[in-house]
């Protein structure tokens, strides 16, 4: 069967004009990937995806591109602005409110038309200013998105990344475990063990777990053409278990597949974690699979997950203990300057702070024009406030 042909003659002729690309086992519609039963052959694009469901109820993978991600962030920011404007318009009367609604609908239409035009450009096309009749905030957004076209797919996963795994023992061991797994495929295949590996990385918020996972996925995309699938909700987890496993095994059996679950404690709390157990124990997707999971709350993760290799093979903590030289390297990464030698004799230098707290310390010192030991007082005040007022509050998300 030749490439870019349709094997089922009953498929309408219009189908080959609608997608951007028809390839092996899938149709690429640009914003998502669909999995029909009979199609021709080509290579599935490496990259980062979210599991989703089409209007017809079929399992699809939604592509995450740098400019699409930025567009979503911009939409979230604009939503907050609109909420406030909507309240003001409603208070002013119905006529003004109707006018406001009509205005934002026109802006939305122009914005989405511009996004569609931008996202059709190649990710390697040099950036050009975007000229349009959209509102100023949308024009600025479109220009910013156009500049992101220079990025390779997945580059934003580690944009501005600091190699924390060089200094954090737990992250370093996870990195080594993944490398060992990829280098020893023969052991798994020859013994028919199922070529899969699962990792749970735990630790308090701000220790670099999520950024480390993002950068690791970027490397796997670039070096192994991995298909990375983020599972961020119970809906997505159930969708993969109910409809995705068979399709992914059928169509991507020979490709490295990475599944990311951030905040395993939250995911395992649903429905007695039966969907999660079905996902980790499934007998369908057993080869060329890596599960990367994180949690800030290891005490909330059920023991029947952590105390059973094959569900979780590698268990490591991203703690506050870092190897010598970390503060100096982190200071230079954040500020672009060398850490003054005199700062090593102050209390903050020996305090066990997370990378997130150290970053805030360094930024405060630069913005206020003072040394880190002088800015440490502001950070101690914050830590005291958190301890006295928020320590027992329920945590959200994955930190």
Structure description:
- With about 400 residues, this protein is of the alpha/beta class.
- It folds into 4 domains: about 1-45, no CATH class; about 65-150, no CATH class; about 155-315, 3-Layer(aba) Sandwich (Rossmann fold), CATH 3.40.50; about 325-390.
- Helix content is about 45%, strand content about 10%.
- It has helices at about 65-90, 95-120, 135-145, 170-185, 185-190, 210-225, 235-250, 265, 275-280, 305, 325-335, 345-350, 355-370, 370-390; strands at about 20-25, 25-30, 30-35, 45-55, 60-65, 195-200, 225-230, 255-260, 290-295, 315.
- Strands 1-2-3-5-4-7-8-9-6-10 form a 10-stranded mixed sheet.
- The longest helix has 27 residues, at about 65-90.
- The chain is globular, with a radius of gyration of 24 Å.
Quick summary:
By secondary structure, the protein is an alpha/beta fold. The chain has four domains: 1-43, no CATH class; 66-152, no CATH class; 157-317, 3-Layer(aba) Sandwich (Rossmann fold); 326-389. It has 14 helices and ten strands.
